C-alpha cells in the first residue's frame, strides 16, 4: 500500500496561495493608500496681518503687500507641509532689525520664504493643519528672532 500524501501537497499549495495573498494586500496598501490633501486655496488667508515689530502685511488676490514704502507686491501661495500650512512668499524676502523695528528687503539671490501658520495651545506653539484656522503666521528674521503676525482689522493695513 502507498502512503497517503495528498494532505501534505494541499498544505504546500495553501501556504503558497497565502503568501501571494499577503503580497497583494501589502502591495495594495503601499500603492493605493490615502491620497494627500491638496494645498489650501489662497483666498482662505486673504486679509490684513499685523505685527508689533514689523510693517503690516495684506494678502490679496493680486499678491502679498508688505506695507512698507516702495516695497513691491510679490506673489504668494499656501502649501501644506508636514509641520502645518505655510504661507510661501514667491520672492526671497528678508527682515532686518532697524531703529524703528524690522524692515523688509528682497534678496538678490535665493528662493521664496516660508512663513508658517501657527497657534498657541497651553503656552505651546503648534503648526496649523486646519484651513479654517489661518489666524497667525511667523517669519524668521535675519537676527534669528521670529516676527509674529496675527490677523488684524483692515484699517491697520491702510
Report what the structure shows.
The protein starts with 5 loop residues before the first helix and ends in a 6-residue tail after the last strand. The strands form 2 sheets. Strands 1, 2, 3, 4, 5, 8, 9, 10 and 11 form a 9-stranded antiparallel beta sheet that branches. Strands 6-7 form a two-stranded antiparallel ribbon. It is α+β, with helices and mostly antiparallel strands. The model has no long low-confidence stretch (mean pLDDT 88). Helix content is 16%, strand content 39%. The longest helix has 26 residues, at 6-31.
Arithmetic mean of pLDDT: 88
How many DSSP-defined strands? Answer: 11
Oligomer: single chain
Q: Please give the alpha-carbon distance between the first and last residues.
A: 101 Å
Continuous helix count: 1
Poorly predicted spans: none
Could you give the order of the helices and strands? Answer: HEEEEEEEEEEE
